[in-house]
Amino acid sequence: MSMPRTAVVTGSTSGIGLGIARALAASGCNIVLNSYTDTAGDRDLAASLAAEHEVQAIYIAADMAQASACRKLVDTACAQFGTVDIVVNNAGIQHVAAIEDFPPEKWDAILAINLSSAFHTIAAAIPHMKKNGGGRIVNIASAHGLRASPFKSAYVAAKHGMVGLTKTVALELAEHGITCNAICPGYVLTPLVEAQIPDQMKAHGMDRDTVVREVMLAKQPTREFATVEQLGETVAFLCSPAAAQITGTTISVDGGWTAQ
User: Fold this and answer.
1) 100-139 burial, b if ≥16 CB within 10 A, otherwise e?
2) Helix, strand or coil for residue 38?
């Protein structure tokens, strides 16, 4: 019987990251959950994930704005499980402002967490994956990795950077059995997005369904949110044997946004 694979998922105690962790656990992977909060609830989440899917799951706190913390996350996971087979770079933050008003410290934080953290975790994981003779790297980019919107300069720049990093990593590792791909979600119904709906209803004087369809999902032709479960299953597919020849590309889960 083959050993279970170990997956590190950054920013994975809620939303898309947790959906990905659940899907990978369901496929039989041991899981490393991560956030910066470091609470009893974070560790309980890992315990319940382990119990539900009969895998091992641990929580490791790491501030993804810090290069050394990103690399240590991977090294700690390796020390615990003996190796790392899958890295999913999901951690991200957002700030919306016009460029001339954009706080420089917000720019720096978004670039650090949304882009540089992926560079550091990948760099730390590569030697382990090469030793294993293979691995999977999945970067959670965004429709904004392929398209721009006003007032999101740092986020759009970071996500475009994530797509470029993905291609380069894929080319460098193509002969090592290690794939690297980016998933580009549109709007996904996460607790974070759900929390914005009442404010939008108030601001536009619309009911929930109308504000979702006409305001939030205006750029998403299906007029439906993607779900965290769909994102999780997409990652699980990219980590499966069927996806061995998919590398250096983007998969859009955006209801048709980037087709326009």
Assistant:
1) eebeeebbebbbbbbbbbbbbbbebbbebbeebeebbbbb
2) coil
Report residue 45 as tokens. 């989440």
CB 61 within 8 A of CB 73: no
Fold of 6-188+226-253: Rossmann fold (3.40.50)
DSSP 137: E
Q: What are 9-29's pLDDT values in tens digits?
A: 999 999 999 999 999 999 999
Which of 36, 59, 155, 187 is catalytic? The answer is 155
| pLDDT recorded at residue 1 | 60
> pLDDT tens-digit profile of 28-64?
999 999 999 999 999 999 999 999 999 999 999 999 9
Q: By C-alpha distance, which of 220, 225, 200, 222 is closest to 211?
A: 200
Intervals of CATH 3.40.50.720 along the chain: 6-188+226-253
Contact assessment for residue 32 and residue 6, using Cβ atoms and an 8 Å cutoff: yes
Query: Is residue 7 within 8 Å of 29, Cβ to Cβ?
Result: yes
Does the annotation count 155 as an active-site position? yes
